[in-house]
Amino acid sequence: MAKHVCPWWLGYLVASPVRRLMYDPAKILPPYVREGMTVLEPGPGMGFFTLELARLVGPSGRVVAVDIQPRMIEGLKRRAARAGLLERVDARLVASGSMGVKDLAGTADLALAFAVVHELPAAASFFIEITEALKPGGHLLFAEPTGHVNAAQFESQLQAAAWAGLQLADRPSIRFNRTAVLKKP
Ligand SMILES: C[S@@+](CC[C@H](N)C(=O)[O-])C[C@H]1O[C@@H](n2cnc3c(N)ncnc32)[C@H](O)[C@@H]1O
Fold first, then answer.
1. What spacing in Å lies between the alpha carbon of 6 and ligand 1's midpoint?
2. What distance in Å separates the CA atoms of residue 83 and residue 95, rounded to the nearest whole number?
């Protein structure tokens, strides 16, 4: 059955600075991101996390952000350009079902999947693609909103990640979210 996908017009709200009052990318991301890193972000929307990722990876790093909705990608590019960060953001429009990131194979230092896995047609193949994109020792920061994903559903997503070869490294606390850090051994 097709999953509900966040409509593009909600992208403005989801990327609004007001959301930082609940949880702030500038506080969440620094422990996981260093200058020069390659970061993969599936489902960036209009860039609530992407812009902070781009700041943190610096001029020598890059953020590969893949989304299935043209309006999300357009909004993300607009906002990245306004912030002077577009050069660091490789924003890609992809088909649902595959992220189309074979070119990253074994090179991504970090993947960020925030509020996106519950929208995907198949979590199992998603985690396999993440595992393939990450370098050994790379991490996936994975968060799902408590309002959309209950505890049992999150555990079965973690099970799918484990089958794909990702190991649970941490369970950080992010308000209103179920969260895990997973590592590619
Ligand atoms: C709820 S929004 C979250 C946006 C962003 N991660 C954030 O937390 O601000 C979910 C995003 O995932 C995207 N998405 C849904 N299915 C996808 C898929 N199969 N591949 C890539 N992106 C997808 C949607 O278009 C939307 O931009």
1. 7
2. 27
Model pTM greater than 0.90? yes
User: Is the CB of 40 inside a 6 Å radius of any atom of ligand 1?
Assistant: no
84-107: pLDDT as tens digits: 999 999 999 999 989 999 999 999
The CB of 113 under 6 Å from ligand 1? The reply is no
Nearest-angstrom CA–CA distance, 110 and 182: 10
Give the residue, out of 10, 68, 130, 149, with the most ligand 1 atoms within 8 A of its beta carbon, to mutate for a pocket test.
Answer: 68
CATH architecture of 24-183: 3-Layer(aba) Sandwich (3.40)
* pLDDT tens digits along 42-68: 999 999 999 999 999 999 999 999 999
Nearest-CA residue for ligand 1 atom 5 is 44
Do the bridges between strand 134-145 and strand 177-183 make them parallel or antiparallel, or are there none, so unpaired?
A: antiparallel
| Domain ranges (residues) in the chain | 24-183
